[in-house]
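re: ur msg from earlier - yeah i can do the PBG complex, just paste it... oh wait u already did. ok heres what im feeding in:
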Amino acid sequence: MTDRPTSAASASSSAVKLPGTTAGLSQFPAVRLRRRRSSDWMRRLVQENHLQTSDLIWPIFVQEENGRSPVPSLPGVDRIGPDLWVDVAGEAKALGIPAIALFPVVPSHRKTHACEEAWRADNLVCRAMRAIRAEVDGLGLIADVALDPYNASGQDGLLSDTGEVLNDETLEALIKQSLAQADAGAHILAPSDMMDGRIAAIRAALDDAGYSEVALMSYAAKFASAFYGPFRDAVGSSGALMGDKKTYQLNPANVREAELEARYDVDEGADMLIVKPGLPYLDILQRIAATSPIPVYAYQVSGEFAMLKAAAAQGWLDEQATVAETLMAFKRAGADGIWSYAALDIARAMKG
Ligand code: PBG
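and the outut:
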């Protein structure tokens, strides 16, 4: 540890300097670091980081049909129908989860290349938010701003005739989608598509339309990751997706570029940032959180959650303990909060 005060150590004449030991600190046997681990109350007293229910954001999938339908590649996560939206949101609220995020399972006949469904006032996400806002008070609602669930190509952007993902044309669509979501009662919009300039464009459009109180939580550093597979199964975009997302999502090899993305999003007016995926990108999270002037959130993505679930199902890992440990890793790395499919389970466990 380099951040300990050294004055006490230098004042102590009994300090034995052994070769290779930490310069300036008292040494064993006077120092016994295990003293502070000797009992549960002592460990609690010296604990540096804490996971609380207020750290959690719970992503849910909303579907057209009543009831629940499981996602095979995301065990324990169900797509939730209109008859259950309010109950599910109410449960999150009752457990003290500050906010939920809604992702739609868009029927394939509504997916087009122009993505009009994304800003239809009565689309799934808008309907779900209106229903929840009418019944559940004091729960934050986060809407994902991106075209992929609505796009016949499965891409996050509109395509040119030659199949390139168009940036500026996509911004126009994102603005329409954002305004529809703000109108339906979203408290936070979370643009997740990594197009250039989207935060500034959406902020200006929201303000012009009188939605200055709607916050933007930007997926600032979102990597072109293979860990999104189960999510794409859940929203039904994996079948549709042609090609990959490497022309807009970040290269997993790059750190500096991720930091730059975060700086621009702050500059463009983001209120909060997201780093995604989570565990494989803890270094990115730590670096961005260390210098960010605004709160930074980790997203424990579908593939990360599926890995833990799959191992737990085999009896190879203790699900609750490993999930809690991963969430603590995000806190340790500096996250102000965590998006996790395990949020409800963890909140229940913390209450119980
Ligand atoms: C879509 C979006 C994705 C996720 C959140 N929003 C998938 C993607 O970029 O393909 C992934 C979430 C997860 O894997 O849990 N813009």
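cool cool. The radius of gyration is 23 Å. ping me if u need the other ligands too
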